[in-house]
Amino acid sequence: LKDFKSIYMIGAGKATASMADALLSIMKNKKVNACCITVPYGIKMKNKFCSATWASHPIPDSNGILGTERIIEVVKRAKRNDFVIMFLSGGASALMPLPIDILSLAEKQEITKKLLSSGASIDEMNTVRKHLSKVKGGRLAEIINGKFRLLTLILSDVVNDKIDVIASGPTVPDLTNFEDAKNVLVKYQIWNNKIVSMKL
Predict the structure, then answer these.
(1) What pTM was computed for the model?
(2) How far apart are CA 44 and CA 90, in angstroms?
(3) Which DSSP string corresponds to the chain?
(4) What is the C-alpha to C-alpha distance for residues 163 and 77, in angstroms, rounded to an integer?
(5) Rounded Cα–Cα distance for residues 66 and 70 (Å)
(6) Are 49 and 35 in contact (CB under 8 A)?
(7) Following CA atoms 165, 99, 186, 89 in sequence, which dihedral angle do they give, to the nearest 10 degrees?
(8) How confident is the model at residue 28 (pLDDT cuts 50, 70, 90)?
(9) Of 55, 82, 81, 58, which Cα lies nearest the Cα of 69?
(10) pLDDT at 3
(11) Euclidean distance between CA atoms 34 and 143, whole angstroms
(12) Residue 150 has what pLDDT?
């Protein structure tokens, strides 16, 4: 870590507060310029240095969008000689929403509710989520685009620990495409819903 000028911490998920608290305690806040995470309502952080946004899970809300925008602001502050550490854990897909421009939050919430009640697997749900988001499916990595070193620390809640599925893979390559997302929606009879057919 001595090779980096500044360190930034970002993240989302149910365990992210504990992850950030632990690492900040080990590092004693040295070189850490900013820490910004999004966690479910009611979860507390011990280290007051880290800015936490509380948001809804499993249905995303406007606070989740605010938290994601704050994470992006931190990312944009990092320079070539800096180091960014991202924490991801269960629930991050819901806690880190940033819908694509043609999709409203209300529409994203409606699709999420239908997927949750459909019996879709986490792999299937996150396949859809990736293609409705500006940051999931590797799109956060696209924003970063090699400008600095990034380390993603992950606590998995996904069978077989598929890193492109955990938290919908904001910093890893997406192994799915729009056709895969459509197939999930067709399978669970959500595609005919006008919200989806007009937007995806």
Answers:
(1) 0.91
(2) 16
(3) -TT-S-EEEEEESTTHHHHHHHHHHHHTTTTEEEEEEEEETT---S-TTSEEEEE-SSS--HHHHHHHHHHHHHHHH--TT-EEEEEE-TTHHHHS--B-TT--HHHHHHHHHHHHHHT--HHHHHHHHHTTBSSTTTHHHHHHTTSSEEEEEE---SGGG-TTTGGG-TTS-----HHHHHHHHHHTT-TTSHHHHHH-
(4) 26
(5) 6
(6) yes
(7) 20
(8) confident
(9) 55
(10) 87
(11) 18
(12) 95
Rounded distance between C-alpha atoms, residue 130 and residue 168, angstroms: 6
Are 37 and 53 spatial neighbours (Cβ–Cβ below 8 Å)?
yes
Q: What residue has token string 């590797």?
A: 138
Q: Which residues pair with 150 in a beta bridge?
A: 84
Q: 34 and 112 in contact (C-beta within 8 Å)?
A: no
φ, ψ of residue 138 to 5 degrees: the values are 85, 0
